[in-house]
Amino acid sequence: MLLETLMSLFSLCWSARNNDYNSRRTSATDPNSCEAAAAFEKEGLLWYRDIGKYGSGEFSMAVLQANQVLEDQCQIESGQFGTFLGVYDGHGGPEAARFVCDNLFRHFQAISAQHNGVVTAEIIERAFQETEREFTALVSELWDTRPHVATAGSCCLVGVIFQQTLFVANLGDSRVVLGKKVGDTEGIAAIQLSTEHNANVAAVREELKELHPDDPQIVVLKHGVWRVKGIIQVSRAIGDVYLKHAQFNREPLIAKFRLPEPMNMPILSATPSIVTHPLHPNDSFLILASDGLWEHLSNEQAVDIVHSHPRAGSAKRLIKAALQEAARKREMRYSDLCKIDKKVRRHFHDDITVIVLFLNHELISRGTVQSPPLSLRSALEH
Ligand SMILES: *[C@@H]1O[C@H](CO)[C@@H](O)[C@H](O)[C@H]1NC(C)=O
């Protein structure tokens, strides 16, 4: 198992994976996939799928690269079991986000199968735990040859639709916002369903101080940004094992990642905040996106953009709106921003992933899931 994981993590060519697994993947650059051409279109650093069908309605999806190596990953899985969505915003390299994209859903399915296909918050939490455990084992395996993988981590935002319930599990600072019809008019409200774990949120700093009462340096304000131990903005993630286990916080890690004092307990956590939301017929759509989008758009702006335009192209439209805002902040033209290549782009915005999910309540209330099954993952070129 570990060897397979290792190979998949570091193979340069995604299509060289084991065939059974690969046949269920679709990606823009996977020549073995017959769905590849239909899966994503590409426009410069942007990959998008304007509109597609999943079990309970339609979706729109887009990913924009800013980093030299894309650190965001995402997936939609849909079938008789329901729908599983993931947005994984990696940091310190792409390894953890790719690992989560390749393994979290598999754990979720296996654990749910042990419970006759039921989905509960506890089952989702266990899938996160298994993924964290396996990634930690991988870091341990790689410690002699690739110690830097100990500093790779990933925010994880997962949405699961099971029967008439939406579960939202979150680690880090991605966000899901619900567009909900209100009042008698065309009005729509933006309701955030996820809890964020970023040290810039006062409640998160309080939580960290309570957990680490003897550590005055647990959160540090640096250049106007709050960071856990002065190093990292998020307080929960998969990976970042150098801030969880003392055996990974030593040489050969580079000095800026090594803590000066001994680590007696984990500083970061991989336990997700989980919200259970019974779906209401007025729940119109969900926007799941990495922090790269929310840095430039408010919840209300995003919901208004989706609500006031055709469904097709919604995800791409949100990314373009965020880019226009990023350009405006720098007093530059949008068209000039678009000419800047990856890596340098990172100075203007982060990788951005957006999934918009439109909810069809006729299907949801009847308890039916439309075919065919869908498995779409963003293992894009890198
Ligand atoms: C649902 O939407 C309808 C029509 O927009 C509105 O009249 C009603 O108040 C909404 N119900 C709730 C619970 O928001």
From TrEMBL:
Residues 55-359 form the PPM-type phosphatase domain. Residues 1-15 form the signal peptide. InterPro entries: PP2C, PP2C_BS, PPM-type-like_dom_sf, PPM-type_phosphatase-like_dom. Keywords: Hydrolase, Magnesium, Manganese, Metal-binding, Protein phosphatase, Signal. GO terms for molecular function: metal ion binding; protein serine/threonine phosphatase activity. Gene3D superfamilies: PPM-type phosphatase domain (3.60.40.10). SUPFAM superfamilies: PP2C-like. Its EC number is 3.1.3.16. Coiled coil: none annotated. The keyword Oxidoreductase does not apply. The keyword Iron does not apply. Pfam families: PP2C. It catalyses: O-phospho-L-seryl-[protein] + H2O = L-seryl-[protein] + phosphate; O-phospho-L-threonyl-[protein] + H2O = L-threonyl-[protein] + phosphate. Its cofactor is Mg(2+); Mn(2+). SMART domains: PP2Cc (SM00332). PROSITE patterns: PPM_1, PPM_2. PANTHER family: PROTEIN PHOSPHATASE (PTHR47992). Belongs to the PP2C family. This is protein-serine/threonine phosphatase. It comes from Cinchona calisaya.
